[in-house]
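User: Please predict the structure of the protein below. I'd like the answer in structure-token form so I can feed it into my own downstream comparison script.

Assistant: Understood. Taking the following sequence of 311 residues as input:
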Amino acid sequence: MAHTNESVVSEFVLLGLSDSWELQLFFFAVFSIVYVASMLGNIMIIIIISSDSHLNSPMYFLLSHLSFIDICQSNLATPKMLADFLVKHKTISFESCMAQIFFLHSFVGSEMMLLVAMAYDRFTAICKPLHYSTIMNRRLCIIFVSISWAVGVLHSVSHLAFTVDLPFCGPNEIDSFFCDLPMVIKLACRGTYEIEIVTLINSGLIASSCFLVLIISYTIILITVQHRSSGGSSKALSTLTAHITVVILFFGPCIYFYIWPFSRLSVDKYISVFYTVCTPLLNPIIYSLRNEDFKSAMRKLRNRHVNFWKN
């Protein structure tokens, strides 16, 4: 990605989370554990779903793709953040910064759409159970995944198209641990009011519309579940609780940033840590560890490997 001749900034300085060496070591230890747990958990989800025929359903197909997105997101900013905890001067090149912005918004946009697809899957399973297998076929699942990636990439390209050619010739310090788009735009050498508005509308529109669709969908599903028998609704309610928890924890910080994208507080970068580093851990913890079918498949896979090594 080449930038214009007006740009003289070849790299940005990341101020990180703290200036304290002791606190940085503490953060390094904590976030290293979170990163490893996120990677192992999401990789395990993909392996278990692909190896167990009982999990060959649309919900788990979409869940495996959600894990793949979380793996990509985990490797986007976290390794760089962990490495920067161990050095004094934290920098990122202009090209790497633009790439980080592109991939971050691609993954976030894709995950939003995938969560909508998973909500539709639960809506069909609970509200139209007799037609579920006909409606939620493999072809539709592939279409959902393709659309989620397409929306994510288009969402990201629309941001980058306005950002990559901005002239950067002055300050180059970003008060964060990654290339936060609003903070990068603020560093441009000319007025960026129009770009800020476009960014706000673009990001806010996709986040708020997805969140609204999810709230309406889960409200209808919960009303439907209340009219079902206690035995069947108990399992459905447990699954719904996991889905709704992920939606709230994912969209909460996201919508917060899009409401005040260009007026950041000092505490916002710590919220960004949860959004970029901790969110990929939600999938293994909430979706998988609370799912009886998944835990059963995990036990079968473990027993299969134990028996293999015994023989």
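That's the full token string. The longest strand covers residues 11-14.
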